[in-house]
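queue> pop job 88
queue> type: inverse folding (structure -> sequence)
queue> payload:
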């Protein structure tokens, strides 16, 4: 998900549509978005760098944080593990 690009976001349907090449398993996925997440992504889309296709940036560049790094931060904060069915 850290390599998510804007072309995978379907705001009208409130979905993220991942292609086979986007997933570890090589299987396409459709991820439903909550209304709150859809609204947040819409706001982020409005202020994005126009030349950048990635959703998540750090200092204007695509994020290089690993999924394990995010899982560790969530665990330290007492949150459940992040998972996508």
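queue> result:
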């Amino acid at each position: 998900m850290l390599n998510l690009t804007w072309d995978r976001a379907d705001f009208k349907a409130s979905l993220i549509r991942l292609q086979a090449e986007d997933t570890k398993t090589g299987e396409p996925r459709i991820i439903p978005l909550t209304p709150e997440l859809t609204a947040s992504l819409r706001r982020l889309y409005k202020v994005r760098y126009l030349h950048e296709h990635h959703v998540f940036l750090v200092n204007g560049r695509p994020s290089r944080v690993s999924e394990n790094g995010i899982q560790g931060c969530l665990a330290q904060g007492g949150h459940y593990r992040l998972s996508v069915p």
